[in-house]
């Protein structure tokens, strides 16, 4: 199958929760993001990089995924993706065209097989980097989103076969790590009992900034759920926290970079020493696993209809 588009990067994630207002304050005042707009209980926040926003928070009856947005190269690529998705019978929620949203842009929105809303977009409003020299210990960009899935094989088939992502590695048959650029993964799927958000990760520019960010959270009374440590798959550092909604957010840095001509996908064993190569964090506790399991998410269409 020919992919419908070439995805350039993960752009932003939208999260819904009953605690959206408190979460927005946490991400702006503690986590390090900058609020670019707020309206009717919703908030849009950016990192230090070139994306207009990397996080959108919206009020909701329960925690859930509102949207994942990916960048493509041009409006023409959006139009071509729309034609190919139509030929495949993939339902479009929004046909290719100008997007009526904060940050603008030209794009389309589709529904994936488990009801997630996915946006492909180009030409969002340009912003000036906040920290061009990389001195601030605050997130630069959205690093990855991990999603709980009830059918990991079907999820991987859709995101690779239709959206053109590549599987970088497996953690046995429990997790799959998918890339769309040189970053080892921008999406990962975790086999679970229900569909939900597992966690959202934000990239720090260096391991020093990563540790300084953890220190800032400690000064605000926020202790890690798990970490700091370094994962085997992806080789990235990790430290996981819970936001006021109970959703898991992660600081990360130094994710492995993939050479397409040389990279070999491998299957990692699920052992404590491979989940944390440093041995500083140990295996994830029952508490962090409970947070990462989340609550069942019925998907965008059912959530909008209720």
Describe the structure.
With 306 residues, the protein is of the alpha/beta class. It folds into two domains: 9-122, 2,3-Dihydroxybiphenyl 1,2-Dioxygenase, domain 1; 141-293, 2,3-Dihydroxybiphenyl 1,2-Dioxygenase, domain 1. Helices cover 22% and strands 34% of the residues. It is built from seven helices and 17 strands. The strands form two sheets. Strands 14-15-16-13-9-12-11-10-17 form a nine-stranded mixed beta sheet. The longest helix has 14 residues, at 75-88. 48% of the residues are buried. The model has no long low-confidence stretch (mean pLDDT 96).
Give me the side-by-side strand order of the main sheet: 14-15-16-13-9-12-11-10-17
Order of helices and strands: EHEEEEHEEEEHEEEEHEEEEHHH
Low-confidence region ranges: none
Radius of gyration: 18 Å
Count of individual beta strands:
17
Estimate percent helicity. Answer: 10-25%
Overall tally of domains: 2
Could you please say which CATH topology of the largest domain applies here?
2,3-Dihydroxybiphenyl 1,2-Dioxygenase, domain 1
Task: Identify the CATH homologous superfamily of the largest domain.
Answer: 2,3-Dihydroxybiphenyl 1,2-Dioxygenase, domain 1
What keywords describe this structure?
306 residues; 2,3-Dihydroxybiphenyl 1,2-Dioxygenase, domain 1; alpha/beta; single chain; globular; 2 domains
Q: What would a concise description of this structure say?
A:
This protein has 306 residues and is an alpha/beta fold. The chain is built from seven helices and 17 strands.
